[in-house]
Known about the structure:
The protein has 18 helices and no strands. By secondary structure, the protein is an all-alpha fold. The protein has one domain. The chain starts with 15 loop residues before the first helix and ends in a 7-residue tail after the last helix.
Amino acid sequence: MKIEADKSKKDSKITLLSLWRQFLPLSVSDVTMACGDPLITTTLAHLPLARVNLAAVGVAKAIAIFLESPIIMILHASNALAATQRSRQALWRFALLAGGGLTLLLGLLTVPIVFSALGNRLLGVPPELSETVRYVLILMILWPFAISWRRYFQGLLIYSGYQTAVAKAGIGRLVTVAVVLFIGFISQISGALLAGIALISGALVEAILVTFAAKNLGANRPPELTDSTKLPTDLKSVWRFYFPLATSMLIVWGGRAILIGIIARATDADIALAAWPAAWGLVLVIANATRMVQQVIIKNRGQAEDRLLLIFALSVGALCSLLLLLAGTTTWGNQLVQSFVGQDQELVERVRPVLLICSSIPLLVALQNATQGFLVGEGRTGVVNQATTVGTVVLLIGAFSAVQSGMNGAIAAAIAMVAALVTELICLAVNFKSLVVK
């Protein structure tokens, strides 16, 4: 299925500035979501058993996001399919089924015998972390359902032009996480359990806020266009459209969950399991600021020139990469790292090189999301899946090879992550001829 861009209808009023205006509120949503990780890291770093709790939360979140991964692209699908009433209704049913099913799977994983088989044996979770990780996952059982619900309504809001409402809901999520962490810190609750409570509380609050916003603003009302042969209109056709996107995210987050297992087998596993989640959380604060590039492109494809959309993506990615480079090389960057991971100087020294290696990631993520946006807008979701698969293979082979050679676990993960994104971007560029600027 290919949605052709009608050049004759392109709106000359769309400028780089107007694209940034659409993007910034959406970026706030992703940034506030990413900021939750450093807040959690900072809080846990100042509570007892900091390294153990940081490692346990890193493992638990990797598992939870792996199970969430099939419905991450609900946002993209909701934005792309919002043009017709029938496609919206079909996607809504799909979102409920997918979110509910994945929540049941997460609940099953928390059963001790199941977790022992998968968590301890497959992922190599150290015995001293096993029970803590399982308890965190119990607290997060509703995570996939809340994410699926939230992303469906976010897509409707973006399609209807209510980006500010998406940003406000993201801020609400961050405030919720901060309040829960503050109360837990004052009460001296176990760090890992506090993190689990904060994560699920934030996700539930944001899901509620976007739902009310969509209803109050009318974003959930059926559009004037009621039918289109270009869009899926039932569960079967939605599944055909969405399956490559779902498996793409499953591969991505499955790979990242396995990456934790690879790091757990590094010679410096004890500190690497704490350093990688802490460093990656900081990287994501900035890199996630670029992800909504994809939604802007899906929304504006056919109304603005591809050249302009690519320039927009490059400008976003370059700015964010510069910020991360400064964070890894300057004095204030060192102070920033210390504020997040506490006074554990060894942990600080492990985190800073990772930030430097990952400084190109925001630019790569911006370009990755831009090319994916073009492809999703044309219905070419299979290409996204193929590129993701190749990139994840590179990630795991690269990290495993580096760890086997004796490299620092967090450094190995960082190098492999950059190599994987570069590889994925090359695959997307080769398969998408529209990337050739006309």
